[in-house]
Automatic annotation (TrEMBL):
Listed InterPro entries: YdhG-like
YdhG-like domain: residues covered: 15-108
Species of origin: Loigolactobacillus jiayinensis
SUPFAM superfamilies (alphabetical): YdhG-like
Pfam family, one: DUF1801
Protein name per UniProt: Iron chaperone
Length: 113
């Protein structure tokens, strides 16, 4: 798989829908970023650095913004399962649009700093 389109085409229909919504959210939040595949996942790069990754799993969408935003947004992420570099966004809940955009904005500032 070389593109996010190729990646999304391999997913189950519900996962395709969620992945496409996530892709569009990230594109909106990071209009200068370029799409790529990294670690076999859709990713967005800016200035040569990966901003965020995402990947559908069985029961959730994995969102991988790197560790710093998970610490910075710990309060807003309390309702989600997180690990050092990952956030699990369950399919049975709407995507937290404003939180995702804020995390992407945080990553852009981090990379540009």
């Amino acid at each position: 798989m070389n593109t996010i389109d190729d990646y999304i085409a391999t997913l189950a229909p519900m996962q395709q829908e969620v992945a496409q919504i996530m892709r569009e959210l990230i594109q909106t939040a990071a209009p200068q970023a370029t799409e790529t595949i990294a670690y076999s996942m859709p990713a967005f790069q800016q200035n040569g650095n990966v901003l965020v990754y995402f990947a559908p799993a069985k029961a959730h969408l994995g969102f991988y913004p790197t560790p710093a935003p998970i610490v910075a947004f710990a309060e807003q992420l309390r309702g989600y399962k997180t690990s050092k570099g990952a956030i699990q966004l369950p399919y049975d809940q709407p995507l937290p649009v404003q939180l995702i955009k804020a995390i992407v904005a945080y990553r852009i500032k981090e990379i540009n700093a």
